[in-house]
Amino acid sequence: MKNKGKIATTIVIALLCTALIVTAGFALYERENGARAGRVGSAYGGAALGEFAMSLGELSETMDQALYATDGALLSSLCSRAAANAASALTAMSSLPGSTQELERTAGYINGTGDFLLFLSREAADGVMPDGTYSSALASLAGGIGTLADGAGRILTEHMDGALEMDEYASSPAEAEGESVGTELAALEEELPEFPAIEYDGEYSVTALEREAKYLEGKSEVSEATARAAAAEFLGVPQTRLASAGLADSTVPCYVFTVDDGDGDGRTIAVSQMGGVVIALTCAREPGSASLSLEEAAERSAAFLQRRGWEDMEAVSTVRSGATGIVTFAAVQDGVLCLPDAVSVGIALDNGEVCSFSASDYVMSHTDRAIPEPGVGEEEAAQCLPDGLEAESERLVLLETEGAQEVLAYELRCTGPAGEAVTVYADAADGRQIKIDAPRS
To answer: Is the dihedral of CA 310, 314, 316, 318 positive or negative?
Structure first.
């Protein structure tokens, strides 16, 4: 922390210098065609490095301030500002050349920090201050960001002094010769501590990062032969037409098979190793001119699911992508639409064939739930709507938060003043707005 003021001053000077370098680079573009690409690339890389270091410095300083905040409004403001700094650092990082774009752990750490800060900002805005666990997590992340900020500031200074060359665009760490900005950033990444295990409502929480497929819990592992039989039945083809493409070691390990449909077209299907459930289907064929409507695609996709045992499913959206109609369904339990339990079916609009299928969301989320009783009724929930907006339909749905937590909510479908569809979700426990879908008209 003691070096941050000096580093910030260095960064400001560096940014001014890099701006001059960019200007000079464009001048050289006109006069020195042979060297212009490398010089302009170095100039842009230097500018991106300056933005990266400055954003990290501001992020670190703001997080240090947040550690001492005892007022909810102030903490919310600080965390919101720090999250914006994290987003700026990621944007600058994406503009760095060559091997510097391969720092996935650094990017994940910054992104996770920003996600946690947004969560703390929302909590503080509601008057909920961090408990001991969240305070410790914030302090841990502040330390990691401080390490990155100090290191980025040092690397920027050495680059401006000519001690470190900027990597070339499209290069890789193996191609770097000697010390460069990229190699130093890679070394800095090695100093970064592990992202703390935090249980909070965000995408970097322990629950979200370590979630397992609920639908496959308790199911037994199947052999490749059993998976092949399931794939052939799903496709409606003889097993002999399926060629094995091996076992995909993904979040849900799957046996993968291909089918040659001739003329260079083919289909690929994935079947889960646990339980033998078809997870995905893709087709290489590009559909021709459409002759079917989206309504017809929805009917065909619903019939397709029913024939394969997918019951208690309701269509929630139908969109067109080129000459393919993609219909998304969600499971219904006890009259509640469970939006996390999603299955999508793609119908080729030229001949009505199923050209894609995805049940990954369903497999990750579906389970027999104990759905709670709502704390408020439909009329009370509708009071969350702003003036001029009225609910045209209401129903109970389950939503999934970024932290993979489920919330019972009222889905209030409305029409906005410009005729656009607006859907507001109110927490069924207390009627508060928790989500708004308002696509551009």
So the answer is: positive
Q: Given a cut of 70, is residue 6 above it in pLDDT?
A: no
pLDDT digits (tens, 9 = 90+) for 301-339: 999 999 999 989 999 999 999 999 999 999 999 999 999
User: How many angstroms separate the CA atoms of 156 and 252, rounded?
Assistant: 42
Residue with tokens 């929480």: 205
Q: What is the pLDDT of residue 9?
A: 42
CA distance 215 to 364: 6
Phi/psi region, residue 401 (left: phi>0; alpha: psi -120 to 50; beta: rest), is beta
Inter-residue contact 79 to 121 (CB < 8 Å)? yes
The residue assigned the tokens 């070394």 is 187
| d(C-alpha 179, C-alpha 191), whole Å | 17
Letter string b/e over residues 217-229, b meaning 16 or more CB atoms within 10 A of that residue's CB: eeeeebeeebbbb
Quick one: average pLDDT of 2-6? Answer: 46
Question: Which residues, 6 or more positions from 1, have their beta carbon under 8 angstroms from its beta carbon?
Answer: 64, 146
CA gap 140, 150 in Å, rounded: 16
Q: Summarize pLDDT for 350-401 with one digit per residue, the tens.
A: 999 999 999 999 999 999 999 999 999 999 999 999 988 989 999 999 999 8
pLDDT at residue 169, rounded to an integer? 64
CA distance 355 to 287: 9
Whether residue 425 contacts residue 411, with contact meaning beta carbons closer than 8 Å, is answered with: yes
Q: Compute the distance between CA of residue 52 and CA of residue 308 in angstroms, rounded to an integer.
A: 51
- Alpha-carbon Rg for the chain in angstroms: 27
Q: How confident is the model at residue 29 (pLDDT cuts 50, 70, 90)?
A: very low
Kindly tell me the sign of the dihedral angle through the C-alpha atoms of 46, 47, 52, 58: positive
What pLDDT, on a 0 to 100 scale, did the predictor assign at position 12?
A: 42
Question: Nearest-CA neighbor of 347 among 338, 337, 339, 357?
Answer: 357
Calpha distance 13→64 (Å, rounded): 23
Helices assigned H by DSSP within 126-223: 132-160, 181-191, 206-209
Contact at 8 Å (CB) between 206 and 198?
yes
Query: Measured between alpha carbons, how far is 63 from 176 in angstroms, rounded to an integer?
Result: 34
Is 301 buried (19+), middle (13-18) or exposed (0-12) by CB count in 10 A? buried
Long-range contacts of 34-39 (CB under 8 A, 24+ apart): 38/168
User: CB–CB of 325/310 below 8 Å?
Assistant: no
What are the respective helix, strand and coil percentages of the chain, to the nearest 5? Answer: 45, 25, 30
